[in-house]
Write a structure and sequence with these properties.
507 residues; mainly beta; Pectate Lyase C-like; Elongation Factor Tu (Ef-tu), domain 3; 19-stranded parallel beta sheet; 10-stranded parallel beta sheet; 37% strand; Pectin_lyas_fold; signal; Pectin_lyase_fold/virulence; Pectate lyase-like protein
Amino acid sequence: MKILRNTILLAFFCLLVMQLNAQETWQSNLVKLNTNGSLSYTPDKEGNIIPDFSRVGYHHGDKNIPDYPITMMLQPLIAGDCTPIIQEAINKVSSMQADDTGHRGTILLKSGEYKMEGSLYIKTSGIIIRGEGDGTEETRLISLSKDQKALINIQGEGKITEVEGSRVKITDKFVPVGTHSFTVASSKNLKVGDRIIVFRPGTAAWIEAIRMNQIVERQGTKQWQAEEYNLRFERVITAIKGNLITIDNPIVMQLDEKFGGGEIYKYTYDGRISEIGIENLYLESRYMGEQDEEHSWIGVEFNHAENCWVRDVTARYFAYACVSIEAGAKNITVRECKSYEAKSIPTGGRRYSFNNWGQQNLFMNCVSTQARHDYVTGARVCGPNVFYNCVARQSLSDIGPHHRWAVGTLYDNITTDNQINVQDRGHMGSGHGWAGVTQVLWNCKARIVAVQSPWVSGSNYCIGLQGEKTPGHFRDRPDGIWEGHNKAGLIPVSLYLAQLKARQANK
């Protein structure tokens, strides 16, 4: 019997290999994988290419998430609120001296149930909170709070602050998407390693061209205002040759002279914290009913932070998100996390399982159920950002840029039983309008998908989609760039992984 079983298994695997080998593969005309592992990009008539999305997440993916030894260990209280004892441990580690890597200490929460009446706050760099697993019988933080807050808050402070006298005009009349270099009026006060903002101004001419001053109104609709669309992309100078500047991450939105062009300036961000990790935890928000709103809103929230991570965290019953990354957070990695069974009214501003407003962030290998917008970006989000190899089940609405012009997002191998949409959302919400540009769907699976491109400032892409194509909310908007609709065998299978591998091979 054992020999027969092994023979059947061997035959099955042989058949599987034959099927895989027989499967016809194909490549995009826009990005091709070469035999040596490098990638070739085909520009459009303006010189735009699909950008390199590989410099996202913790230290741009160039460092592994560290595994530090335990500094302090806690056991759950048999009864009572565990918030004070965990916060006291955080405060104690916060006062410790950081080592050369920026690490202060790792707090281990032993398995068991930690009842939480309040929220935890991390306001200092170099702190890790680690459990012994994210299962329901492992390290469990149970929020009993009735406040609409995050259970774990990673909160620095400050903002992007321009260095006085450092602003320089970009002199190229047009800078295409995907480039890492451009010319400035003068580079004499710049050096390699400078942190700069690539500033793309909002102008009345651009608002007119993109028709976001003509949104068909309903009660509460707001037309777009130019000054609200000044975009600030965080970058680092990697090379200078004369007045030609090269930066680490690519341009992800065209800089066009007729819409104000662009500028750069050096900046500081005093108060931003880093090297913080949340890992191996089960988080739960207790609730009173399916549409209860008086309970914890978010599992883990980041703001004013960089080079941090969340991994192997399960969140259940939160009203808003497992992980929410706010506008002041960058280079955050969220991986192997799960958001289950959100409890709230299923309407606006709720059930955004993995939510991103920041820059250069990576969500990978995540799972979401019963959300409205499982993998989503907010307004005026400056990329690149990546969602890779994530699944949504029992989804109530759509995945994608949610409103008001997210720039430079890769949705790579996203699978949902509902929708992925990149479109003009018109007067949805309070006037969402065009949801974004340089939005790339790569090898995704969905029930229905709409991908449209705005009238100006770039394109959106849908490559290798498995699912039904729909015209979207407005049928007269320009179509996005589609390739290989319902055609299996796209190579590379993952654009993000291929770009990361190609870049690291050239280091």
